[in-house]
Write a structure and sequence with these properties.
Layout lengths: L2 E6 L6 H14 L4 E4 L2 E3 L3 E3 L5 E3 H10 L10 E5 L4 E6 L2 E7 L6 H19 L2 E5 L17 H7 L3 E6 L5 H11 L2 H6 E9 L7 H11 L3 E6 L23 E6 L4 E2 L5 H4 L4 E6 L10 E4 L1 E2 L2 H10 L2 H10 L3 E5 L1 H5 L3 E4 L8 E4 L7 E19 L2 E16 L8 E5 L4 E4 L1 E2 L5 E4 L8 H12 L8 H19 L2 H9 L3
Parallel strand pairs: 1-9, 1-10, 2-9, 3-6, 10-11, 11-12, 13-15, 13-16, 16-18, 18-26, 19-21
Antiparallel strand pairs: 4-5, 6-7, 7-8, 14-17, 19-20, 21-22, 21-23, 23-24, 25-26
Helix pairs in contact: 1-2, 1-13
Length: 490
């Protein structure tokens, strides 16, 4: 075997989760298996051990395979900094900014790196499970496509097409996608998977028979809607609302260019926490803890906060004793000023910060990509932690004299991170993955609410959920057919 590609009729059709599940299924069956996504566009990313950057979905898929993260799993990552520009990351490192009108140049810029990464994986593993991006039927992108059929045709790998029935119109999505493809691309699709079905399968059988008869392609499986699957989201911010049944109220501001919102999945999954992503300043009322998250465009997102009433709402929250946490770009916003003199994230210039911590940040061309471990010590709470950093800024100032934690990166370098306000109400840190640490989560929850609230061991949760996902796939997919398709790969 070499490669098997999963493509979808739409974004969020279920490609990422299906690839993760298949990775775990075949790992359990004794295959050496690796994930691969030629090109990803996402603001949720992870750091590899050698200091590279890949999409968060590929990090999950690597965990499903039991593998350490590697840049070969996602050789091209696009991180939009605005509606018209995107940072281009190749083999884990940022190489350029690309305007939307120049996206057609991505093939010349990156396809060779994609093919080389894929070749390295096929030499090391029995099976490489490949995730497409968006839909292969985006005819406007076909000429320079490296993410879907452009890749599949180049390496001559078979494709399974997945569609989300929960959206409605699943048969139109599948047949419409197929009809738009070229003859050779149509032949490359070896079967269909229908995702997120609710109800009795007999109600769907007539449609399945029609689909197979009209396309001459098999339905390899119908996957049920899996309730409360606690696995990393690829990019879209989920629309969660508070249950009002927990012990602490936590609200995260949804920035226009929010990044790594997967930081908060251990909070949103905890029934003892009333967790909410909020989009209006008035929604901060009643919060015990407000979090300003990471951002791919700190100054533009800071302008959004300053011009939409958020600053007043945040200051009022703090005035009434509420706690405030800034993570990465959100940490930078807490200071007096953010300088981007070289126009790294947007137009060159300076933006005044919230002025809540005595510090300034200057954005630098060189991005810090670190895997770290260390100790935290704040508000009488101490413990160990692990996490990762992804940021361009260098922050200096008086507030850093009272750091949030002391860290050691993968290269053995030791340093202090973050800041704590004199009144202990505000914490800032560059560290992502905070809430994957059970004891640190419990310490932050106690700091925010004065209550003892049990956190999750998120690594254990992720592992259990991958096993649950694999069990569902084994029950509802024709795995012998999938293996047959994979073995047809040259």
């Amino acid at each position: 075997m070499a490669g098997l590609m999963i493509q979808g009729t739409t974004s969020d059709a279920g490609k990422s989760i299906l690839v993760a599940g298949l990775c775990r299924v075949f790992k359990r069956k004794g295959f050496s298996v690796a994930p691969f996504k030629p090109q990803n566009m996402a603001l949720n990313s992870a750091v590899t051990l050698d200091g590279g950057e890949i999409g968060r979905a590929q990090a999950l898929q690597a965990a499903a395979c039991g593998l350490e993260l590697h840049t070969d799993f996602n050789p091209v990552l696009l991180k939009p900094s605005s509606d018209m520009n995107s940072q281009v990351i190749i083999n884990g490192k940022a190489v350029s900014q690309l305007a939307a009108k120049e996206f057609g140049n991505i093939k010349a810029l990156a396809f060779q790196s994609v093919l080389q990464a894929y070749e390295r994986l096929t030499e090391q593993y029995d099976l490489v499970i490949i995730e497409g991006a968006g839909s292969p039927a985006e005819v406007n992108l076909r000429k320079n496509d490296i993410a879907n059929m452009g890749f599949a045709e180049e390496v001559d790998c078979p494709v399974i097409l997945v569609s989300d029935i929960d959206r409605g119109g699943v048969f139109a999505h599948l047949t419409g996608t197929l009809n738009i493809l070229s003859k050779t691309e149509q032949q490359r699709i070896k079967g269909f998977v229908i995702n997120k079905f609710r109800g009795h399968l007999k109600l769907l059988q007539g449609g399945l028979d029609w689909l197979e008869e009209n396309t001459r392609k098999p339905v390899i499986g119908v996957l049920p809607f899996i309730q409360d699957l606690k696995l990393d989201a690829e990019d879209a911010v989920p629309r969660l609302t508070s249950t009002s049944q927990g012990l602490v109220n936590i609200k995260v501001i949804v920035l226009p260019r929010i990044s790594n919102h997967t930081d908060f999945e251990p909070l949103s999954a905890n029934p003892k926490i009333n967790f909410e992503f909020v989009r209006e300043a008035e929604q901060l009322v009643g919060a015990d803890l407000v979090i300003i998250p990471g951002s791919k465009n700190v100054r533009d997102d800071l302008d959004f906060i300053l011009s939409n009433g958020w600053k007043d709402a945040i200051e009022k929250h703090c005035r009434y004793g509420g706690k405030l946490l800034g993570i990465c770009g959100g940490f930078q916003m807490l200071g007096e000023r953010v300088d981007d003199l070289d126009g790294i994230e947007s137009t060159a210039g300076t933006t005044n910060g919230l002025g809540l911590l005595s510090m300034t940040t200057e954005l630098k061309q060189q991005k810090d990509l670190k895997r770290v471990s260390g100790e935290y010590d704040f508000s009488g709470e101490k413990g160990r932690l692990k996490g990762y950093e992804i940021h361009c800024g260098q922050t200096t100032g008086k507030s850093l004299k009272q750091p949030f934690c002391h860290l050691r990166d993968q290269h053995g370098n030791r340093y202090a991170d973050g800041a704590i306000s004199d009144d202990q109400q505000i914490i800032g840190t560059y560290l992502h993955g905070l809430f994957e640490n059970k004891s640190l989560t419990e310490s932050i929850l106690f700091w925010a609410s004065g209550k003892q609230i049990t956190g999750y061991d998120w690594q254990e949760v992720r592992e259990n959920e991958l096993e649950r996902l694999a069990d569902v796939l084994e029950e509802h997919l024709d795995l012998s057919k999938i293996l047959q398709i994979a073995k047809s790969s040259p």
